[in-house]
């Protein structure tokens, strides 16, 4: 039997945003691995083993997934949103790089609706012109690099999607990020706080960056800072497609 390793995105929360391709991979899986809250979204059934792990265990999880696939199992590694955006796909390839014996494995990456797209759709079209995405977690990179990227993104007048703005173990980071953007002249920019988008706890707030408070974000919030032209029209927020 030939095993397979599929790395799939579950979307931002609503089941309707799981792609048919991902649903079909899950229906066919013998094993699902992932961070516990994501694995909890998978319905248990006979013949399916669920392997939940902690969010700091990504490399070990990736190795375990490759080992199971090499044994002939149909393994799906799940991420929320898209698996290639600050998520498991890179972790699997990092583990693969260090394990030449597994280079023959059949691997597929199945995209999902990433949080910034679901959040943007709720607000209108804040990512309608050039934009970038920055992960504010400093688990895997120094804070000085995050600050540099924030400053340069502000200077380039990108709309900026901020993932992982804040956690209990990193209370200062987001406050500092707001300060850096304010100092870079972004005080007037419309800033969207999209909490738990497409779930029952969804909440969307928008205000000028200078009025944003650090406690408006938590780990289930995606923050979008508009560019200098991002504006409101009625109850919607959008970024024009042109710039001068
Ligand atoms: N792979 C995921 C991102 C993982 S990083 C994706 O593509 O969406 C985790 C961060 O994603 C969270 O801290 C938050 O910033 C964002 N996020 C994930 N789901 C979200 C949701 N439903 N609503 C708002 N933000 C979300």
Task: For the structure shown, list the relevant keywords.
244 residues, five-stranded mixed sheet, 7 helices, binds S-adenosyl-L-homocysteine
Describe the structure in your own words.
- This protein is of the alpha/beta class and 244 residues long.
- It is 29% helix and 25% strand.
- The chain has 7 helices and 13 strands.
- The protein has helices at 20-28, 36-39, 58-70, 88-97, 115-123, 143-155, 171-183; strands at 4-9, 31-35, 49-53, 74-79, 106-110, 124-125, 131-135, 159-163, 190-195, 203-208, 221-225, 231-233, 236-238.
- The strands form 3 sheets. The chain has a 5-stranded parallel β-sheet, with helices on both faces. Strands 7-8-11-9-10 form a 5-stranded mixed β-sheet, sandwiched between helices.
- Strand 2, helix 2 (36-39) and strand 3 form a beta-alpha-beta unit.
- The longest helix has 13 residues, at 58-70.
- It is elongated and about 55 Å long.
- It starts with a strand and ends in a 6-residue tail after the last strand.
- The protein binds S-adenosyl-L-homocysteine (SAH).
- S-adenosyl-L-homocysteine (SAH) is lined by residues 12-13, 79-82, 85-87, 114-115, 119, 163-165, 194, 196-199, 219-222.
């Amino acid at each position: 039997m030939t095993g397979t390793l599929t790395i799939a995105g579950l979307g931002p929360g609503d089941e309707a945003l799981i792609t048919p391709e991902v649903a079909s991979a899950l229906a066919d899986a013998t094993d699902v691995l992932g961070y516990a809250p994501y694995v909890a979204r998978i319905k248990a059934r006979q013949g399916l083993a669920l392997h939940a792990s902690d969010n700091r265990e990504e490399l070990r999880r990736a190795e375990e997934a490759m080992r199971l696939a090499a044994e002939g199992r149909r393994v799906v590694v799940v991420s929320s949103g898209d698996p290639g955006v600050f998520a498991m796909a890179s972790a699997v390839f990092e583990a693969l790089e260090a394990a030449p014996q597994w280079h023959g494995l059949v691997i597929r990456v199945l995209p999902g609706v990433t949080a910034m797209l679901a959040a943007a759709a709720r607000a209108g079209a804040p990512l309608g012109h050039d934009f970038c995405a920055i992960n504010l977690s400093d688990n895997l990179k120094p804070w000085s690099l995050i600050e540099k990227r924030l400053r340069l993104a502000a200077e380039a007048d990108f709309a900026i999607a901020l993932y992982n703005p804040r956690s209990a173990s990193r209370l200062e980071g987001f406050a500092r990020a707001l300060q850096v953007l304010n100092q870079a002249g972004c005080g007037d920019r419309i800033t969207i706080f999209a909490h738990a988008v497409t779930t029952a706890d969804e909440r969307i707030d928008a205000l000028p960056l200078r009025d944003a408070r650090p406690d408006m974000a938590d780990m289930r919030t995606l923050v979008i800072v508009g560019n200098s032209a991002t504006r409101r029209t009625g109850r919607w927020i959008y970024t024009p497609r042109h710039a001068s």
